[in-house]
Specification:
By secondary structure, the chain is an alpha+beta fold. It has 3 domains: 323 residues, Neuraminidase (6 Propeller), CATH 2.120.10; 286 residues, Aminopeptidase (3-Layer(aba) Sandwich); 77 residues, Pdz3 Domain (Roll). Helix content is 16%, strand content 32%. It contains 10 helices and 42 strands. Strands 28, 29, 30, 31, 32, 33, 34, 35 and 36 form a 9-stranded mixed beta sheet that branches. Helix 2 crosses helix 4 and helix 4 packs across helix 8.
Length: 739
């Protein structure tokens, strides 16, 4: 990068609806209407569901088990048939192999009243582990025909293997919440897990050989102490859980997710090679659970649901054609959860962002072997050859008939203060085409050059000539995004409504040279370019998941697309202007709508320390998937209208002659300017300002975001002293700064 600036809708009693982002779910249908409806699971023939319901409006004070006939088209509350005793509290029902009996846990032997739910004294969310729970088998008329467990403590969460031979359940009989397995008749009970923590919510693979479950396994002394204290009170705090798999004989325990927060309600995909689960790992504030899918080896995480703030308990039908889950979408009242069913459509495997590909591209481009990829250098040539070879592997056509290379010449000033320090230089763009025989085209681009050994003096580290500037974030990350999108779009089973041009520019660090050259020739080859998408520095997504999307104002429809397709948990700041510090500017100036994706500057920006080991691959993957959805939506628009923009919708960037010496977070959080980094020896550092502080005021000038920050700086001159106000760990600090 060249610079661091910048309804519930209910038709009668049922309805069909869907959300464009939820491409795996078709013909989505609501099955329940009102109350708290959850843990719905299919019968072996797929014709019925068993589920648990709480709905005081209908006299169901706490969870009871009901059955619903799926063969009806229009469901009403009257279609729900009670198949538990109606006493105590029940949980986790599951059909037996004959489809004529169900398995569930109940507290009714300990009393007919609903047990008192736990109350948190410190605001923590708690689950009750009722020791009265035992596991029963009942017929579909509610008659209990067998009790399978009768040991002291919690026995619940029982499910049956697809081959009908085994039952797995969770129990405290060993003193901890562990997984246990038994024969279908309750015999030969065996403990499967042994690690301290809550192992539960297990389901079998479709071949009945493995289990997937969620576990909260405390690691620190403090967490272990809290877990044991809560368990002694028959409570757990299910806020830190990960997904695991294990063989049914207790061998080969593997942790699948390492996401943090609560990952739970897992279920095997029909292939047994993937797992669908509910998670809030992405959430930076508030309550938000979405369904995700991940490979059993922990790779290729992707988001499945996008609507509402609670989606959980997914289960595939026995034939794998449908998915049932619980969600609070389309509520008629607050705190309502209903059951939904949808036709399942598998994602085209080619359209799944591949983690290994991203790492391969970034690792190679940011390796010392390429010596920083300076335009005109041997390292640039090696990078260009690598990129062209990758395009050729994908079967993409060269932009220049027989060559992927577009050569250009220019002059570079080695010293901005010396007009005599100009030298001739040359560079090479690498460009490939996916020709779908369409009359419209989308360009997806990124620059692959960087600073080399600081020969052109763009480094932010003083006296760094001769040091390799690898540029992993700037901009191997964006190049990897382009290469992965090229693979996804060229290898998938679909033929898009547009052509795609994948453009990798050089000369960006010297002033957008390569992209300017390409933009001059583009419309001769592709007269109807409807959008240019630029990715520059997408590799350092921060803990707030802050992403800046520029160019949103260059088409009146872009803002809606950006908001609708936003990855879960991301805080996206939309910037309207089509002019910015990267290559999309060259195309905007040719009256082409543009979008620009950028995760912000950081303390390693334009320094030798911008290395591959600091890349946030979770963020890169999510952003590439985001761009894929957005470009797909743009390709299906009837018209894409170009709109000229002013600098950030009329915000004039003020001129200023002083600096504070910080790396700002460009996301507008509304509470001030968040500081990503502080430069050593500059005014902020000398005053004691730290990375992570939120700048709210410079003297009497209020700072709201980056634009007001620059406005405040424009009122100062060198030597001025001001009291600067920052928020740190929730406390206000006032510090003296000499500018």
């Amino acid at each position: 990068m060249t610079k661091s600036i910048t309804s519930f809708l209910l038709a009668s009693t049922f309805c069909w609806y869907g959300f464009a982002q939820e491409s795996n779910l078709k013909n989505l249908r609501q099955l329940t209407f009102g109350g708290d409806n959850a843990e719905a699971y299919f019968s072996p023939d797929g014709k019925n569901l068993t589920l648990q319901i709480t709905n005081p409006q209908f006299g169901i004070q706490c969870d009871q088990i009901y059955m619903l006939d799926l063969q009806k088209d229009n469901h009403t509350p009257e279609d729900l048939k009670l198949i538990s005793t109606g006493y105590g509290r029940t949980t986790c029902s599951f059909f037996m192999p004959d489809g004529k009996h169900i398995l569930y846990a109940s507290t009714h032997e300990g009393g007919h009243a609903c047990p008192t739910p736990p109350k948190s004294t410190d605001g923590k969310y708690l689950w009750a582990i009722y020791p009265e729970y035992d596991i029963y088998v009942a017929d579909l008329k509610g008659n209990i025909v067998k009790q399978l467990t009768n040991s002291p403590g919690y026995d619940a969460e029982a499910v049956v293997s697809p081959d009908g031979k085994k039952i797995v359940f969770t129990s405290t009989r060993s003193g901890d919440l562990e997984l246990w397995i038994m024969n279908i008749d309750g015999s030969e009970v065996k403990q499967l897990t042994n690690g301290l923590g809550y192992d539960g919510g297990a389901f079998f693979s479709h071949d009945s050989k493995k289990l997937v479950f969620r576990s909260s396994r405390p690691k620190t002394e403090e967490d272990i102490k809290e877990y044991k204290e809560l368990l002694s009170k028959n409570l757990v705090a299910p806020t830190e859980m990960e997904i695991y798999t294990i063989n049914i004989d207790g061998t080969d325990l593997k942790q699948v997710t390492h996401l943090g927060k609560a990952n739970w309600a897992p279920y095997f995909h029909p292939s047994d090679k993937k797992i669908i689960f509910s998670s809030n790992h992405h959430s930076t504030r508030g309550y938000d659970f979405q369904l995700f899918m991940i490979d059993t080896d922990g790779n290729n995480l992707r988001q499945i649901t996008w609507e509402s703030e609670f989606n959980a308990f997914p289960m595939f039908s026995p034939d794998g054609k449908k998915l049932v889950f619980s969600s609070n979408r389309m509520q008629s009242k607050p705190r309502e959860t209903n059951v939904f069913i949808a036709d399942w459509v598998d994602t085209d495997e080619a359209e799944i962002v591949n983690d290994k590909n991203l790492k391969q591209h970034i690792s190679y481009l940011a390796s010392d072997a390429l010596q920083g990829r300076l335009t005109g250098s041997e390292g640039e040539k090696k990078a260009a050859d690598y990129l062209a070879a990758e395009f050729k592997k994908l079967g993409l056509k060269p932009y220049n008939k027989k060559s992927y290379f577009q050569k250009f010449d220019y002059k570079v000033r080695l010293n901005p203060h010396d007009s005599t320090s100009v030298k001739a230089n040359n560079g090479t763009n690498v460009i490939a085409v996916l020709d779908n025989k369409a009359d419209r085209t989308i360009v997806i681009g990124a620059h692959y050059d960087h600073l080399g050994l600081n020969e052109h003096h763009h480094s932010t580290k003083p006296n760094s000539e001769g040091e390799i500037h690898n540029g992993a974030d700037d901009n191997a990350s964006g190049v990897a995004g382009v290469m992965e999108l090229a693979r996804m779009l060229s290898q998938n089973k679909s033929k898009e409504n547009v052509n795609y041009v994948f453009a990798l520019f050089s000369g960006e660090e010297d002033g957008l040279i390569g992209s300017k050259f390409m933009a001059e020739t583009l419309k001769e080859k592709f007269p109807k370019v409807i959008t240019m998408v630029n990715m520059d520095m997408i590799g350092r997504l921060n803990n707030n998941k802050a992403l800046v999307v520029g160019g949103v104002g260059t088409c009146p429809d872009f803002s809606e697309l950006i908001a609708k397709n936003k990855p879960a948990g991301f805080n996206v700041t939309e910037e309207n202007t089509g002019i910015g510090p990267s290559d999309h500017t060259s195309f905007y100036l040719k009256d082409i709508p543009v979008l620009f994706f950028f995760t912000g500057t950081h303390t390693d920006y334009h320094k030798p320390s911008d290395d591959e080991d600091k890349i946030n691959y979770y963020g890169v993957r999510a952003i590439v998937d985001y761009v894929f959805r957005i470009t797909d939506a743009i390709s299906n628009m009837d018209t894409v209208t170009f709109t000229k923009t002013k600098v950030e919708a009329g915000k004039k960037v003020p001129a200023y002659k002083v600096t504070l010496g910080i790396m700002p977070d460009y996301t507008d959080y509304g509470d001030g300017l968040h500081i990503d980094g502080v430069t050593d020896g500059r005014p902020a550092d000398k005053a004691g300002i730290q990375s992570g502080d939120v700048l709210t005021r410079i003297g009497d000038c209020k700072v709201k975001e980056v634009y007001s920050y620059m406005d405040c700086l424009s009122k100062l001159k060198a030597g001025d002293e001001r009291e600067v106000t920052v928020m740190r760990d929730g406390k206000e600090l006032k510090l003296k700064v000499v500018f």
